[in-house]
Amino acid sequence: MSHNTFGHLFRVTTWGESHGIALGCVVDGCPPGISFTEAEIQSYLDKRKPGQSKYTTQRREPDQVRVLSGVMLQEDGVTLVSTGTPISMMIENTDQRSKDYGDIARQYRPGHADYTYDVKYGIRDYRGGGRSSARETAARVAAGAIARKVVPGLVVRGALVKMGVHSIDHSRWDWAEIDNNPFFTPDAGSVDTFANYLDGIRKAGSSIGAVIEVIAENVPAGLGAPIYAKLDQDIASYLMSINAVKGVEIGDGFHAATLTGEENADEMRMGNDGNPIFLSNHAGGILGGISSGAPIVARFAVKPTSSILTPRQSIDADGKQVDIMTKGRHDPCVGIRAVPIGEAMVACAIADHYLRHRGQTGRI
Amino acid sequence: MSHNTFGHLFRVTTWGESHGIALGCVVDGCPPGISFTEAEIQSYLDKRKPGQSKYTTQRREPDQVRVLSGVMLQEDGVTLVSTGTPISMMIENTDQRSKDYGDIARQYRPGHADYTYDVKYGIRDYRGGGRSSARETAARVAAGAIARKVVPGLVVRGALVKMGVHSIDHSRWDWAEIDNNPFFTPDAGSVDTFANYLDGIRKAGSSIGAVIEVIAENVPAGLGAPIYAKLDQDIASYLMSINAVKGVEIGDGFHAATLTGEENADEMRMGNDGNPIFLSNHAGGILGGISSGAPIVARFAVKPTSSILTPRQSIDADGKQVDIMTKGRHDPCVGIRAVPIGEAMVACAIADHYLRHRGQTGRI
Amino acid sequence: MSHNTFGHLFRVTTWGESHGIALGCVVDGCPPGISFTEAEIQSYLDKRKPGQSKYTTQRREPDQVRVLSGVMLQEDGVTLVSTGTPISMMIENTDQRSKDYGDIARQYRPGHADYTYDVKYGIRDYRGGGRSSARETAARVAAGAIARKVVPGLVVRGALVKMGVHSIDHSRWDWAEIDNNPFFTPDAGSVDTFANYLDGIRKAGSSIGAVIEVIAENVPAGLGAPIYAKLDQDIASYLMSINAVKGVEIGDGFHAATLTGEENADEMRMGNDGNPIFLSNHAGGILGGISSGAPIVARFAVKPTSSILTPRQSIDADGKQVDIMTKGRHDPCVGIRAVPIGEAMVACAIADHYLRHRGQTGRI
Amino acid sequence: MSHNTFGHLFRVTTWGESHGIALGCVVDGCPPGISFTEAEIQSYLDKRKPGQSKYTTQRREPDQVRVLSGVMLQEDGVTLVSTGTPISMMIENTDQRSKDYGDIARQYRPGHADYTYDVKYGIRDYRGGGRSSARETAARVAAGAIARKVVPGLVVRGALVKMGVHSIDHSRWDWAEIDNNPFFTPDAGSVDTFANYLDGIRKAGSSIGAVIEVIAENVPAGLGAPIYAKLDQDIASYLMSINAVKGVEIGDGFHAATLTGEENADEMRMGNDGNPIFLSNHAGGILGGISSGAPIVARFAVKPTSSILTPRQSIDADGKQVDIMTKGRHDPCVGIRAVPIGEAMVACAIADHYLRHRGQTGRI
Description:
Four copies of one chain form a homotetramer.
Chain A (H helix, E strand, L loop, with lengths): L4 E2 L4 E5 L6 E7 L6 E2 L1 H11 L16 E3 L3 E3 L6 E3 L4 E6 L21 H8 L15 H14 L4 E9 L2 E2 L23 H13 L6 E8 L13 H10 L4 E6 L10 H4 L3 E3 L5 E3 L7 E2 L2 E2 L4 E7 L9 E4 L5 E4 L13 H24 L3
Antiparallel strand pairs in A: 1-2, 2-3, 3-8, 4-7, 5-8, 6-7, 9-10, 9-11, 11-17, 12-17, 13-14, 15-16, 18-19
Helix pairs in contact in A: 1-3, 1-7, 3-7, 5-7
GO molecular function, one term (chains A, B, C, D): chorismate synthase activity
EC number (chains A, B, C, D): 4.2.3.5
InterPro entries (chains A, B, C, D): Chorismate_synth, Chorismate_synth_AroC_sf, Chorismate_synthase_CS
C-alpha cells in the first residue's frame, strides 16, 4: 500500500488538505459498465457533512462532488457509466481563507499530529490540520460510493454502537432507526441517553470517544486470501487509516479472547435452499482470511478529539513550554461522522477483493 | 500489499504449507551491511516452537532455519553480513508424511478455513490446514529477526496479558519474568492462575483465547505517514494477518472510546536532555499515523483454536451433514505462541517505515 | 506498477480523457521542502502544447495547470513549497464539446486502439481517443517538472534525432539549437531537411515516425537495483508507456548487438578531481541496472500516427467492412511533441530511484 | 514493481547469487488447478543451461529444480496441481566453492556492475558477479514455465535473429529448426555463418552481442491497459530486466520511425470464421497497450559480455589504476542463452495481464 493510495485492483488515491483549494480522489480500477449518478455519491457525502445537527461541528462545507473523468454521460443527462479508466472526483473547498493562526502555527497541540508532522517533514501545514484533517475523508466516502456498485447486491451499513460509557442494546437493533437520529444509532432507546450525555460533553467544551459497527451483507464467499491479503486484514488496515481510530475488531473481536473453542466455533448446516449456513457468526463472516458468505461484521474505536476548551500543557517548535486551548468549531464526538466513512472503507476493501478473487481464480 | 508479500521497502514474501517439503521467506530490501547470525534468528524461532511445555502442541518441529542468499559469511565463520540483495531463509519440514486424512479431507471443520478455501480455490490442501496453518508464522519470525537489526537500537518485546477471563496486573509488569514461565506473562503473580486455568481447559479437550501486548522502544519519531501508510495502520494490518487474530488496538485502543478529550490527550514537556517528552501515552506512541518517539504499544486478540474434542455440527463438500471432532495434538491456547509472532510483525512494520521515512524525507 | 500509477516512492497517478472536463495527476511522495512555481511547470507544458508551429496539430489547448494541494504558498505569492503530502495538479479541457462523431463511434480505425478498447472494456470512449489520447501526456509533463526538482542538480534534456529516413549528425549536437527550431533538433544543419521532408508529409495528408534521445546529467551513481528495479528497466518501462512508442534503447542499444566486448566495455580512469571517470559511454550511464555517474542516455522510437487522409480498410463494431479516412487536425509527426514527454518520464524514473536509493541504503 | 519482484497478480520474486547455497523463486498468484510436472520446468531450464555446446560457457550447472510448496502431488506421483498458494522453487548451486578471488575482489571490471554495486551498497559480492550474475535468470525460466500454463493455449517461442553483424533471413523462418542448432536460429541457412563467426570470436577471447525475437501466439485480445500497465510496456520492462539487455522493440520497433502512417497501419477485415483479422502486424499484436489477438512480437538486444581476454584499463576500490583481464569460462555470445529467458519473461507478462484483465473486467 502506497502512501496515499489504497487497494490492489480497486485503487483509491486521495489528495487535498483542510485549507487547500480542493480535495479529491482518483478511483483507478473501477470495472467498465458501472452506472451511478453524482447525486448518489452526494447522498453519502451528505451523511458525513458537518453541521447537520448541534452534535457535529458547525463549519459549513457544502462538499459538492464533481466527477471529472472516467465516465460517459448517458442520454438522460444524469447517469454516468464507467469506462474502465480512472474516475477523478473533486470537492472544492469553499472556505479556504487562511485566518491568522498566530502562535498556534508553532505550537504542538496535545493529541494532535502537530509534533509528529514537524518531526517528519520539517514543514507543517498548520492550517486546520493540513492533510491530517478529517476533511480528507470526504474523498474516501466518494470512492466508497463507487465501490458499493462494483459488487452486485452488496449492502454496507454502519451504526454508532457506543459513545463514551454508554452502549446500545443490540437486541433492539433496527436499521430503520439509523437515519431518525443525529447519532446513527440503530437503537431508538439509546437516543435520549446519547443526546443528554453529549449535551453535557459539548457544553463542558469537552469531547468523547465512540465505537462504530459496520456490517456488510451479500458478500460472496471466497473473497480474501489465506495470508497477507486476508479480507479481515485489509478491512482492519482500511479502518485504522481513518483519523482518530485506535482499535479494530472483526466478529467477536477482543471478546473472542474470553471464549472457549466450543463457544467460538460457528457450526454449519445445509440451508433449505441447498446452500450452507452458519448457525452463529462469531467469526464475523471471515474464516482464514476469506469471506464465508455470512455477513461481515467490523467494529472500530474512535478516540475523543483533542480539540477541547480545557488548557493542556505542551511545547512549541522552539521547545518553549506553553498552555494550549483549542478554540474553534469542533465535533464533541467525531465518532458520529465516522459512520459513513467506515462504511466507505469496508465497501472499498470488499470491492478490491471481489476483483482480485475474480482475477486470481475466475471463480465469480 | 500483495497476497503473500508485505512491506514496501522492507518486503517479506513467505511460502510453504504445513505438510510440504519446507517453508520459508524472502526478505527483500534489507539494507546492506546488517550483521546477524543464524543462531540469533534461531533464538526467536525457538520461542515460537511447539512442544516447549505441556501448554503448547506436542508436535515436534525442529524449525531449523538456513540462510540461503543475500549475505556474505565473515571470517569468524558465524557472522553474516547482508549485501542488499534478497535474503532467502528456509525451514525444512522434518515430518511431512501425509497420514491418512480419511473423511476429514472432505469435511469442513467449524471455525477453520476449510469451507472458505474450498469456495475460493476449488482445491483444498487438507493436510494440516495447508497454507492457513500456523506453521507459516515461523517464516515471519525469521524475517522479524532481520527487521530488528535494521533500526538502530530498536527493542521489540511482547507479553501475554490476558487468557480467557483472566488478565494480568499491569502494575506488576516485569520484563524479566517473561522467560521464567511458559505463558510469556510479565506478571509473576499471574503464572499460577494461568497454569491452573489452562490445565482445566487442556484436560477438557477445549481451548481458550488470549490477548497479547507488544511494546516497541527506541522507535525514532517521524516514522509513518498521515494517511494510507499510517504506522498504526500497517501495524494493525500486519497483526491482523496472523492466524486467529480477531482484533487489534493501538495505545488505549477500544478503551479510548470511553475517554474524554482531557483524559486522552498526552501532554508534552521538555525533558532534561532537551528532547520533548510525553507525560502519558494514551496514543501508544503514534499521533496522526506518525511515531512520536514514545514507546509504541499494540495489542491483539487471538481467538481459541477450533480444534477441540467436543463434536460440532458441520457439513462436508457434498453438503452432507456431519459431526466433527478434531483429534490430534493442538495448542489449548494458541495465543501463547503468538507472542514472538506479534513481536516479529511489529518489528517488520517499523523497519519498513524506517526505510520509507529515510527515502521520502532524508530526515534520519 | 498499477494501471494508472507509476513509481514506488515518487508515485504519479494520472487521470482524464481527451474530451472530459479536465485531466490531471496526483504526485504522491514528493519530499517536503521542494520549491517550484506554477510558471515553471507551465514552461514544460508549453513545449508539449499543440499549435506551436505548422508541424503540430492546430488544435487549441491552453493547457493551463493549477496546483490544487500538497504545497504552501510562500509570501512572495508565487513560490510553492511542497509539504510532503500529495500534489494534485489539474488542467481543464477548454474545448470539450462532443461533436457529432457519427459512424466513427462504431468504426475501428487501423492502427488506433479502437478495436482493442472495445474488446477489453465493452464500452469505448470514441471522443478523441478517450484515455488513449495524447492529451494524457500533459499530466506527465507536469509531474516531470516536479521530479526534476527532487534530485539536486539534475538536468534532463531531450532532442529529436531522427525523422523518418533522416537522422541528425551527432557531431553537430548543440543543445542551444534545440529551442531555435520547431523540431527540437540539436543539429542546426538538419532543420531544413526536416522542414522540407515534413512539409511533404503534411501536404500528402500522411504522417511519419521519429526517434527521440533523452540525456540526463548529474545523476548520482548508485541509483537503481540489480534485478527487477533496474534503473534502465524503469526508464524503458516509463518511455514505452508513452503513446505510439514502439522501441526503447539505453546507451548503444540495438547497436550494442553488433559490438565486440572490447568495443563495448567502457574503460575507467581516475579523474583529476579524484573521482572515477569513464573513457566512453556505450553503457549509457547504467551498469548492472545501477547508475554509474556518467550521463544517462535513452532513446525511443515513435511510430507515425494512424490518423491519415488516405482511406484504409477496416471493420466496425458489427463486423461490417468499412473504409476509414481520419479527418481532423493531427500531427504529421507526433514524435516532435514527444520530446518534452520523454524528458518528463526519464526525470520521474530518476527521482523515484533517488528516493528509493536513499531509503534502502542511506547512502545519499 | 518491487526490487526483486515483478508482476501484479502473477508475481514472481527471485533470490540467490552466483556463488550462494542455492537460488530460486516464489511464484505468488498462480491460480489454483494448474497442472504441471517438475520435468516440464526442467526442460526449459535445460535450454538455458550452460555447457550445452562449445558456444556457451563450459561451467557445469546441473540446475535441477525442486518445487517446495504450493502444489499437491497427484496419484501418478509426477503431476503437480497448484493450490493457489505460493509456489516456491529452488535450484541448488552444486559448485559454490569460493575460489581465491585475489585482486579482482577489489577491482572494477569495465562493463561489469562491480563499480556501481560498490557505490550503491558499499559491500560487493565479488564472487561470480553476485546477484548480477546470469545465474539468477534460471529462477525466471522456472517461473516462466508456470506462466505458460496460466493462459490456455498460449505458445511463447524465441529465436536468435542477429549475432554481431550477421542477421538471419526472416523469409526462411522455420520454428522446427530452432532446436537443430546451438544458436536457436530459425534459419537453417544461418547456422554455418553463425558457427564460423562465433568460432572466431571465441578463439580471440572476445565476445559479441545479439538480438533475440520472441513471438507469443494465442494471446487473447484485451490484455493490457491504456496507460501505465500497457502490455507492451510491461513486456519491455521485463525484457530490459534481463542481464546485458540494452534495447527492446515491439512489432516494427525502431523501424517504425521510418514508416509513414499508410505503411504502418495494420488494416482489418473479417475472417472467414467471423473473427476480425489483421492484414499485417506492424504493431506486433498490441494497439494502445492492449493485445489485439494478433501474435505478439518483441525483440531485445543483448550486449557482448565484458568478460574478455584482452586487458582493459580500469581502477580498483582504492582508486588505483589497473589493467584487468577477465579469465574464466565465459559465453562468447550470452545472447544465445538469453532466448529461453526472453520467452519466460514474455510468458510471465502475459500471464499477469491475463489475470488482471479477468479481475478488472470479468471479460475472459
